[in-house]
Known about the structure:
9 helices
Amino acid sequence: MVISHPSRSVMRKATAIIKSGGIVAFPTETVYGLGADAFNPLAVARIFEAKNRPLFDPLIVHIADLSQMEALASRVDKRAGRLAGRFWPGPLTMVMPRSERVPDIVTAGLNTVAVRMPDHLIALELIRSSGTPIAAPSANRFGYISPTKAAHVLDQLGERVDMIIDGGDCSVGVESTIIKLDEGRNVILRPGGVPVEEIEAVIGPVTMAAPSAGNPEAPGQLPSHYSPSIPVRLADGIASIDFSRGDAGYLLYRDPGFAVPAVRTEILSPGGDLQEAAANLFSALHRLDRMPIAVIIAEPVPEQGLGIAIMDRLRKASRGGSRE
Ligand code: TXA
Ligand code: MG
């Protein structure tokens, strides 16, 4: 498998692969996705196979144009219209009542479908030229750290995919925020690239769904996820981290203002900027996961704005433990 740079001929080839039922890894502003024609159940099945993803975990369907919603959702309520107007294209996924046309394998048999319009030229062009919405999870092995570079996809999925389009580093770095719009209730199923506070400013108060293996509202939100092979421990704060350990790597939010073991330390944002920290999170975890260390000790970040999504990923990573 080679990584392809997005020339015109590469985009033509990627389009032909999607149209003929293949699977293509492509960049979005959040993380790399592994895409297939959302209306081709056999193609979508190949995604589950490539990722070792359980079939109970539904996929997000990516669109390039609002008109594509008609074939996916049976009803688009006012709140969805307002959120789309404010945040699309962008890192927001909306769970809505599904149309009969969406294959069951995409929705894991639920009566809802998750839809998002990504804010990335390559993703949008691939959807447009393929002439179909593209179902795509993050392009990682199930349970492992999400990819924010083409090389991450190559490492994890390699020959299991038909093509990898390299669009450089993902600018947002954490997955989309997922919101379910129920009767009179707005439920955040996964915090992500659009801060919860910004959503509330548009549609009013939201509630956070508790992540749990048995929560039918959030089938893919297992308590453990995003896990490196090396165990992650989430510290209480910078002051409680023991920097004298020779067998540990450190994932810090910001420059602590004192000397740390430089080779084994990743600083997400020296000046303490949550957006920058989110963009660097998964790359830093990938780098630490390649080091000869026994544990990754992580500093918590402030739980506001994108910090809510970062802490969600760190908590899930810390419940993972070694798996490969
Ligand atoms: O930023 C993103 O959302 C990336 C890029 C590629 O777009 N995609 C992504 O997909 O993170 P994935 O498959 O890794 O996570 C999608 C989550 C899963 O936890 C899944 O359970 C949930 O979305 N989901 C999908 N359809 C759903 C539905 N109908 N109801 C509830 N949750 C749903
Ligand atoms: Mg994922």
